[in-house]
Specification:
Blueprint: H1 2-21, H2 33-38, H3 44-53, H4 55-60, E1 67-72, H5 74-78, H6 82-89, H7 92-100, E2 103-105, E3 118-122, E4 128-134, E5 136-139, E6 142-151, E7 154-159, E8 163-167, H8 176-181, E9 184-188, H9 191-194, H10 197-208
Parallel strand pairs: 1-7
Antiparallel strand pairs: 1-2, 3-4, 4-5, 5-6, 6-7, 8-9
Helix pairs in contact: 3-7, 7-10
Amino acid sequence: MRRELEMRKLFFGVVAATSIAWSPLSFSGEISVMDVLEQQPDYSTFVRYLKVSGLDESLELPLAWKWTIFAPTNGAFENLNSDMRKGFEGDKQLLKNLLIDHLLVGDIQSGSLEGNNKTLSLTVSQKPIQLYRDQDMYVKDMVVKDKDMSADNGIIHGIDCVMFVQQSETDDRLTADIQDAYPVTACCLDSGVHDDSWRDHYSNIGRAHAGY
């Protein structure tokens, strides 16, 4: 948890400093990942949440790295029950914590994952998720529906569910061997399975370091 919070501090410190040094106009003439998302009607809910959380500003800036974004479709959010949606819609910090786990630093294209090859990548919050491809590109057990939507500052893969990245030991559906082998697991946020565990998870991050 301490390492995760330190990396969050670093990331948002960079974003804050960059926001002062650059304006969105300095990215003029290039297509950002936000521009691409805004052109895709099926991701309008994700775009709206990015703007509410303030993360859209970071995704429009010319930073030293490129992004890989796993963007939930509108249907992915609609599959969550109303209580869950109201939970993060009414709490900007909770919403930001949830969305951050859909953002990876680095440009990961589906073609870089051939056959059953696997790679380990980190979200902005420094949580490792395992990516692999088998006929289609997957983020763990989540099928990527729209692959390789390219922008000048990154790439977007559309997924059919909202990601929940958590410590494996908190997921009682995993065996002890899997929990030991993979300290962090990424799965689809499920209203019927996770109940309030997702809220506790992301709220604890916010309480531990509410200032990022």
